Amino acid sequence: MSTTIDPYNVIPKYHQLALILKAQIVDGNWPPRSAIPAERQLETIYSISRTTIREAINLLIQQGYLYREHGRGTFVSPQKLQKKIMELTSFSEDMVKRGIRPGQIIRKVEIITPPTRIQRLLELPPNNTVIEIDRIRLGDGKPIGLQTSYIALQNPNTITKADLEELGSLYKILEQKFHIIPSEAEETLEVTLADLDEAKLLGILPGAPLLLSQRLLFDQNRKPVEFVRILYRGDKYQYYIRLVR
Q1: Among 100, 29, 17, which residue's Cα sits nearest to residue 55?
Q2: What is the mean pLDDT of each run of 10 residues along the chain (245 residues)?
Q3: Can you give the pLDDT at residue 79?
Q4: What pLDDT score was predicted for residue 110?
Q5: Residue 244: burial class (beta carbons within 10 Å; 0-12, 13-18, 19+)
Q6: What is the C-alpha separation between 3 and 16, in angstroms, rounded?
Q7: Which pLDDT does position 100 carry in this prediction?
Q8: Closest to 145 in 3D by CA, of 86, 87, 100
Q9: Domains of the chain (ranges plus CATH)?
Q10: In three state form, how does the secondary structure of the chain look?
């Protein structure tokens, strides 16, 4: 990648600069929370206007690579939490593997009759009940995602708030309490925008990007046991996949 701005390139100058600065971050030349060069320095290095520099910086802020602190400058954002697509892990396992303390705010644990779509996915007969668990998921005490799970268990088996508070991970509860082993899953990913309620719960602005993950979990007998919907903060979480040809 070029490290200079080409005035004759069809790519706008601010976008060229954004790519150069992003490469410095991705390559580890600028560690998380370190300050990037001041605008006047970038102006001298790349011979471009302050307006162009600000456009490039604003783009990287929107993408989650930089953040501003009023009166102090612009800094490199902490690396996004990354999850490999081929891994079947719980949220808590994801956090622990990355050296982050997982947490939760339990908003609801109820027995409900699920919507028709959930009933069909879990292969349940009409009017069968499920356990609905609604949580705010935390990383080092900060909101990262909103998680709603629908779990199909044979009566009188149930999951309680005390179970969640003791073990944290739903996968652990399934294994230790019911001998249900999460073995495989089908998952879809899409981008959406935060509504007013979601933004308030996650501490972000309405309209901020979210990563929506919807997963159907199967047990060791390939019986569907859970459907979960998770909204991740777009500035805190990303998925990773390695492709080979």
Answers
A1: 17
A2: 74 87 85 90 91 91 81 81 59 74 91 92 91 93 93 86 88 88 86 93 92 89 91 78 57
A3: 65
A4: 94
A5: exposed
A6: 9
A7: 76
A8: 100
A9: 13-76 (1.10.10.10), 81-240 (3.40.1410.10)
A10: CCCCCCCCCCCCHHHHHHHHHHHHHHCCCCCCCCECCCHHHHHHHHCCCHHHHHHHHHHHHHCCCEEEECCCEEEECCCCEEEECCCCCCHHHHHHHCCCCEEEEEEEEEEECCCHHHHHHCCCCCCCCEEEEEEEEEECCEEEEEEEEEECCCCCCCCCHHHHHHHCCHHHHHHHHHCCCCCEEEEEEEEEECCHHHHHHHCCCCCCEEEEEEEEEECCCCCEEEEEEEEEECCCEEEECCCCC
Q: Which two tokens stand for residue 149?
A: 């799970």
Tokens 């007998």 correspond to: 221
Structure tokens at 28: 């580890």
Q: In the numeric block, which tokens belong to residue 82?
A: 């990354």
Q: Which residue has the tokens 């027995």?
A: 111
Q: For the stretch 181-195, what's the b/e string if a residue is b when 16 or more beta carbons lie within 10 angstroms of its beta carbon?
A: ebeeeeeeeeeeebe
Written as six digits, the tokens of 210 are 């979210």
